[in-house]
Backbone:
């Protein structure tokens, strides 16, 4: 029988891992996905005071005025701001703020604020993802060391999580799409607000989620990612290729880069963990793209429970073509007139660096959406246990898919007075989810052919 959840909170992380690895959830727990839980494991009911509504299926149809292939119409544009949290009144809301948001409100007391809107539980996924989640919930298990998942494909592996590592794997394997092509912009403004726009073209195939996928066909590769740098001229022509793996004990992530100066493709084993992200000016680590990605092996993961928190949600304004990049990118942090915050229940997971491991961040606290398993915020601490960087995933529902993903992610360095904004597309084309790639499009040979054109 599966270890009682209360007991797992009282045990050390290592004991928790050994007890839960290889142990599937019970039939009674799976049955909850049709009763008090959503199909992906969130609490279906609203909260006691009605500030969080019940989940009623999420947003699955485009609102009036949406045109396929165009930017997304905000389905909640008519909502008024309920209240604004700032440095002057933050103590009133402290119980529902992350430590990172408290620090931002204090550090940038003259400019940082959080506009709080009515809560909409818009997260949704296709029915086949719900069906697959119910199926794999009975078979999914962590590998003994937690550095991989077995017995799972397509669905969320741990909809009723027993520990922090299961929650993080739910994020890594969450539903986003089958394929996507996107052109996005990244910027790392100086303290004074100057920046250079870095333009990327991304192609992604999330093989784990493909319809009809099996563990055998998956061949341990859950995601194929290719990124081309389009601008500025000094960086243009460089490309990155990544094959992400499900069980990293069988094979670690594989990565290659194409260098236009050398006109050759070479292995890139350092595209992982705390090595600097592409053209990020040192403002994010490789494992911070998509808020968190890659192997969890360097940390001990503790599930701290679930809590109601003000988090970024339904952020359609940040992709609205009515605004320019310059409207959003300001000194110290993005223009806080545009983000939307709502009260949602989130899982809280504390990651502590293992004694024999190395990483820039000694400790990280993750806030994960109960309805989609999207990480919405992260507090990152340095080796002195000082809060160093704060990350936000500005989520929205791409209702033509449907999925819950980010319209922008931001990583703010409190010590440097700078930040990195990743994923802006309000001045470019919206994400294209109607493409299809083959595995042969994501090979080193394909990268080489494209590079020499």
Residues:
């Amino acid at each position: 029988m599966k270890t009682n959840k209360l007991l797992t909170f009282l045990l050390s992380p290592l004991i928790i891992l050994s007890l839960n690895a290889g142990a599937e959830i019970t039939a009674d727990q799976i049955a909850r996905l049709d009763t008090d839980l959503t199909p992906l494991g969130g609490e279906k009911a609203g909260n006691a005071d009605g500030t969080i509504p019940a989940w009623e299926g999420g947003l699955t149809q485009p609102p009036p005025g949406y045109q396929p292939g165009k930017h997304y119409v905000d389905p909640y544009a008519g909502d008024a701001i309920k209240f604004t949290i700032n440095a002057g009144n933050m103590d009133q809301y402290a119980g529902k703020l992350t430590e990172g948001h408290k620090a931002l409100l204090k550090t940038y007391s003259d400019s940082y604020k959080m506009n709080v809107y009515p809560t909409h539980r818009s997260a949704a996924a296709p029915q086949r993802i719900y069906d697959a989640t119910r199926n794999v919930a009975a078979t999914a298990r962590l590998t003994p060391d937690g550095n991989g998942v077995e017995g799972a494909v397509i669905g969320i592996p741990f909809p009723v999580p027993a520990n922090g590592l299961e929650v993080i794997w739910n994020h890594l394997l969450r539903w986003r799409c089958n394929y996507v092509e996107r052109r996005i912009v990244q910027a790392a403004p100086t303290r004074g607000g100057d920046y250079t726009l870095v333009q990327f073209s991304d192609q992604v195939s999330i093989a784990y989620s493909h319809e009809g996928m099996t563990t055998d066909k998956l061949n341990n590769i859950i995601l194929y990612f290719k990124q081309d740098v389009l601008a500025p001229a000094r960086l243009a022509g460089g490309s990155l290729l990544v094959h992400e793996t499900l069980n990293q004990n069988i094979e670690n992530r594989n990565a290659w880069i194409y260098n236009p100066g050398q006109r050759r493709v070479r292995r890139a084993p350092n595209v992982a963990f705390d090595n600097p992200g592409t053209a990020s000016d040192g403002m994010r680590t490789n494992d911070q793209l998509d808020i968190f990605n890659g192997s969890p092996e360097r940390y001990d993961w503790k599930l701290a429970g679930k809590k109601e928190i003000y988090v970024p949600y339904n952020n359609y304004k940040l992709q609205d073509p009515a605004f320019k990049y310059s409207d959003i990118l300001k000194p110290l942090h993005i223009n806080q007139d545009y983000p939307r915050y709502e009260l949602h229940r989130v899982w809280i997971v504390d990651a502590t660096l293992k004694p024999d491991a190395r990483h820039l961040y000694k400790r990280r606290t993750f806030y994960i959406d109960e309805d989609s398993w999207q990480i919405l915020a992260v507090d990152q601490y340095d080796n002195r246990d000082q809060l160093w960087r704060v990350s936000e995933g500005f989520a929205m529902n791409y209702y033509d898919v449907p999925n819950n993903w980010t319209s922008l992610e931001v990583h703010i360095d409190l010590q440097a007075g700078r930040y990195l904004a990743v994923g802006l597309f309000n001045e470019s084309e919206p994400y294209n989810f109607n493409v299809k790639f083959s595995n042969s499009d994501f090979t080193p040979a394909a990268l080489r052919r494209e590079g020499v054109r």
User: Anything to note?
Assistant: The longest strand covers residues 299-312. Residues 1-22 have pLDDT under 50 and may be disordered. The CA atoms of residues 87 and 110 lie 8 Å apart.
